[in-house]
């Protein structure tokens, strides 16, 4: 018996939607936050450091970077990550690990479910790479997570 791609996609979507709570667990969404300022070097201007050790490192306190076009859903995450550096100003390398943690949102143009993007941030020297949770669907105050710094220009 052959199953079409459309049926598989419909079942996968139904499974994800059924796993989403009707209430979001994300604690730091502020869709009234100002838009990020894009600098010439394809980075966001970030002026504040977070004092919250959960910010960016916990799925309930992601970095909320928002985007405007589903065709390029990683662009704001990359603009944010491009602005960061390691604890002592080291050049940061990053890679997307996965999407996780479905939650309800009105800002996803293809449905009422958002997913967080999980990135690994790494730099030279002995340490454990950082695992950052980034929310591309909603806005919030964007800061530098505890333990990281801003890239020197």
Automatic annotation (TrEMBL):
Q: Please indicate which superkingdom the organism of origin belongs to.
A: Bacteria
From the Swiss-Prot or TrEMBL record, give the protein name: 2-dehydro-3-deoxyphosphooctonate aldolase
Biological source species: Flavobacterium pallidum
